[in-house]
Amino acid sequence: MKTSKMYPAYFLIGSLLLFGVFCILPSILGIGYSFTDWSAYSDEVNFLGFGHMFDNYLKAFSDEKYIGYLGNTLLFTFVTTIVKNVVGLALAVLLIRRIKLLNFHRAVLFIPAVLSALVVGLIFRSVLNPEVGLLNSFLRQLGIEGPQWLTNPDIALWSVMAVDIWKGMGYIMTIFIAGLMSISPTYYEAADIDGAGGWQKFRWITLPMIMPVLVVTTVINVIYGLKVFDIVYALTGGGPGYATEVLYTGIFREFGYGNFAMGTTLSTIMFVVMIIVGYFLIRSMSRSEVEE
Amino acid sequence: MRSRKAIGTIGVNIFAWVLSLILITPLILILVNSFKTSTAAAEMNLALPEVFQFSNYLTVIEKGRLGVSFVNSLIYSVFSVTLATLTSSMAAYVLSRNRCKANKIIYFIIVLGITMPINFVALMKVMQILQIVNTKIGIILLYSAMQIPFNVFLIHSFIGKIPRDIDEAATIDGASPLRLFFLIILPLLKPVLVTVMVLGFLGTWNEFVLPLYYLAHSANYPMVLSVYNFFGRYWMDWNLVCGNIVLTSLPVIIVYLLGQRYIVSGMTLGAVK
Q1: Do B105 and B208 fall into the same domain?
Q2: How many Cα atoms are found within 13 Å in the side-chain-facing hemisphere of A5?
């Protein structure tokens, strides 16, 4: 029997319809709308004209407000990716050693990852409350007057990143643990015989063997960081001012203001970046599949 | 040498406990405060309540209309997870078995959806054209669509491990493609289906961005979004807010504890091969 008959194409209809209509179509429409003056204030949507067709993009890359969104998004992505990787790997190496109640610790570290970011945001609005919050009360006992974690524009973004790291590091750690478990213990036994110390074993066995996993966690963190919305919205809503505004919260704000053209322009910039990232990611992943 | 190692082990264990405490303290804070009076909860500390105010929970359920939002969340997650699992397993099956050029491209584009951001603004236009803004069915369809890329990716890699001899034997016995898939293949996919369903449930339950954009009436809000609304109205009463947080997170924590194995395997499978 022919393959195409045994595996008919109509099996694809459901997925293609849902994915095509709700994911692909808006992205393509969005590219078109980014060359218009689409807004809530007029029923008409006008093409900007060939001379001005990139005006929205020029604005996105010249207006200080939008550059701020981009800058915050990149800073957030950069910092959370590095810290989650370093802390996640350190915890994984540590926890995989003989520890009593290992599964208990792993479960606790993973719980924040399954909670809604909105809930985590509310919890930390309490913890980070400058007057009575848990953190500043604790610091006061040590004789330190803690800052206004979420309302001081110089600190707010760092607080948001810290909460995000608190929430996400358990997940990254779990991926590293799975990676570490797949390293054959014979390497470590051989190193023991050669008299290698803990650091040497980490540097010359663990690190090279965990590299492919490190690449994946980096990609996961970067994708997450560029698309972040939930935790920022829940903690600061992008404020104070625009201090913690990232791309996705910025898009939501533009949407709320009725600046649809600007919202879809920012989305399209994101779309192009993510498609390029995703293309190389899948290419590299399918290559390793072939090698197997 | 041995004693140094023993001290090291103790040190590592202490560190693990400190770490676990740092992670769990904020959660205990919420639980403890949910049983306090409003005045006591305003201090936001870890002291145990003098009298456990179990009635807080009744107040929260009544004032926050949690019954309605609980049912909404349940509707959104159950229907979208069912629809997404069904459609994506059918697609993954054909894309894995019949690797012609067109199917390879389709697979690539769908999996690209894992990283692809949603253009929420233009999606509003699509929803308006389909007349599903502010409707439950609209949210269900959106959530289903969002789950498809990851589901297809995970199920596709699982189907690759099921031998094709089964398909051929069944076809020779006269099974139609639909019978073959639903009666023979689908039961074999059970482990990966449980994984995508549990992950899909968690994702849908915790998500609030789509309702934020496309639901105007609080009568349609899922639990997570209604807890946020509740906070907006009762931010003076942290005891009630905490109670609401506990009730909203309870389903997720129960599913996590029951399905831990599937969640961890699903969330790490794509990453570590």
Answers
A1: yes
A2: 8
Whole-angstrom Cα distance, residue A229 to residue A245? 9
Secondary structure (DSSP) of A171-207: HHHHHHHHHHHTS-HHHHHHHHHTT--HHHHIIIIIH
State the ipTM, two decimals: 0.86
Q: What pLDDT, in 10s, does the model give residues B109-145?
A: 998 888 888 888 889 989 999 999 999 999 999 999 9
The residue ranges of chain B whose pLDDT is under 70 are 1-4, 269-273
Give the C-alpha separation, A134 to A150, whole Å: 14
Residue-level pLDDT at A291 = 40
Shortest distance between the Cα of B255 and any Cα of chain A, in A, equals: 10
Distance set, CA B191 to CA A9, A289, B94 (Å): 25, 21, 19
For residue B70 the two structure tokens come to: 């609980």
B102 and B185 share a domain? yes
Q: Answer yes or no: do B149 and B38 share one domain.
A: no
Contacts 24+ apart (CB under 8 A), A58-67: A59/A262, A59/A265, A60/A262, A60/A265, A60/A266, A60/A269, A65/A242, A65/A245, A66/A250, A66/A262, A66/A266
User: Which class in CATH covers the domain with range A34-291?
Assistant: mainly alpha
Q: In the structure encoding, which two tokens stand for residue B74, read together?
A: 């349940």
Give the residues of chain A that fall short of pLDDT 70.
Answer: 1, 98, 284-292
- Region label for B3, one of left (φ > 0), alpha (ψ between -120 and 50) or beta (otherwise): alpha
**Chain B CB within 8 Å of residue A279 CB:** yes
Domain count for chain B: 2
Q: Find out whether A150 and B42 touch, Cβ atoms under 8 Å.
A: no
Clarify whether residues B141 and B230 are in a common domain.
Answer: yes
Do residues B96 and B138 both lie within one domain?
Answer: yes
Domain span at B34: 2-56
**CA neighbor of A263 nearest in space, from A278, A277, A248:** A248
Question: What distance in Å separates the CA atoms of residue B268 and residue A174, rounded to the nearest whole number?
Answer: 7
Q: What are the backbone dihedrals phi and psi of residue A7, each rounded to the nearest 5 degrees, phi first? A: -120, 75
Q: Tell me, rounded to whole angstroms, the distance of Cα A204 from its chain centroid.
A: 30
Could you tell me the two tokens for A21? 């209509």
CATH number for the domain spanning B166: value is 1.10.3720.10
Other Cβ atoms within 10 Å of B174 Cβ, number: 7
| Total Cβ atoms within 10 A of residue A161 | 22
Pair (B202, B248) in one structural domain:
yes
Q: Rounded to whole angstroms, what are the CA distances from B10 to A100, A168, A290, B5, B7?
A: 10, 27, 45, 9, 5
**Residue B214: closest CA among B110, B115, B107, B141:** B141
Query: Does one domain contain both B124 and B222?
Result: yes
Judging by beta carbons within 10 Å of its beta carbon (0-12, 13-18, 19+), is residue B216 exposed, middle or buried? Answer: exposed
Chain A (101-140) residues lying within 8 Å, Cβ to Cβ, of chain B? 104-105, 107-112, 114-119, 122-124, 126-127, 129, 132-134, 137
Q: Do B91 and B41 belong to one domain? A: no
Break chain A into its structural domains and give their ranges: 34-291
Q: Does the beta carbon of B64 lie under 8 angstroms from any beta carbon of chain A?
A: no
* A118 contacts B227? CB cut-off 8 A: yes
Residue of chain B with shortest Cα separation from A137: B45
Closest CA to B212 of A244, A225, A118: A118
